[in-house]
Amino acid sequence: MSVTWSTSDPLIPLSDENLAFAEAMGVNPAIHENDFIFHFVDRRWAANGGRERAVKDYFQLGRYTADLTKTMITDVQKVYEVAQWDWAPRRLLDFASGYGCTARHMRHVFPDSVSATCDIHRDAVNFNQDVLGVESYISSPLPEQLKLPQQDVMASIPELRLSKFHEGLCWGVQDAYVCVKEPDPAATASAPTLSAPVSRSV
Ligand SMILES: C[S@@+](CC[C@H](N)C(=O)[O-])C[C@H]1O[C@@H](n2cnc3c(N)ncnc32)[C@H](O)[C@@H]1O
Question: Which domain of life is it from (predicted)?
């Protein structure tokens, strides 16, 4: 199999099997060498399954989060339908996106939406924009300094250190604000069977 894209970003080398795995999921297989989510997953599989397994788990974790976001948004849409509000998630922002573990799946999971990422790391923003091809914005250390185009949905992991952003940004989001809690790593030890989300808030 030959996958061609040109980037000067340092990437995790992938086996043909894992390239095919990503292709079957319909996602860009490029994983940045500094992707901390990847290294987190990699450490989990170091003793059992190794790098081959870690790569698959990384792609599955991203799809899980994107699918979970879709489930929540679909619930929101149902409520809006009952209220007879004409609403669709046209613009969707993955806030604190890292190197696109989840964002790379958004195009596939939300084919009718424009998705974007936002992160404080310039490298991550450039990678998401230039390699993954996802519209991307640099964040700021202070919520009040952050200026973003209007979004219909913002998806983010509820981290304590980002709570000020979550509070502040939710007022700038048009209609739906989704916090996705990642599954407990222990619960994904036998991936792909992942546990139900521990919490959800819209
Ligand atoms: C646990 S990672 C989330 C990774 C990502 N959601 C994923 O699924 O791969 C936390 C992210 O928050 C980002 N972050 C920290 N402070 C931030 C800020 N002020 N604005 C935006 N992102 C921030 C970090 O750079 C990091 O990428």
Answer: Bacteria
- Find the 84 Cα to ligand 1 centroid distance in Å: 35
The range of the structural domain enclosing residue 140 comes to 63-201
Q: CATH number of the domain at 104, please.
A: 3.40.50.150
pLDDT, average across residues 64-87: 87
pLDDT of residue 198: 32
Which of ligand 1's atoms lies nearest the C-alpha of 102? 8
Does the beta carbon of 10 sit less than 6 angstroms from any atom of ligand 1? no
Which residues make Cβ contacts (< 8 Å) with residue 139, sequence separation at least 6? Answer: 95, 96, 118, 119, 120, 146, 165
Is 117 inside a domain boundary? yes
Asked, for residue 114, whether it belongs to a domain, the answer is yes
Structure-token pair, residue 8:
């000067």
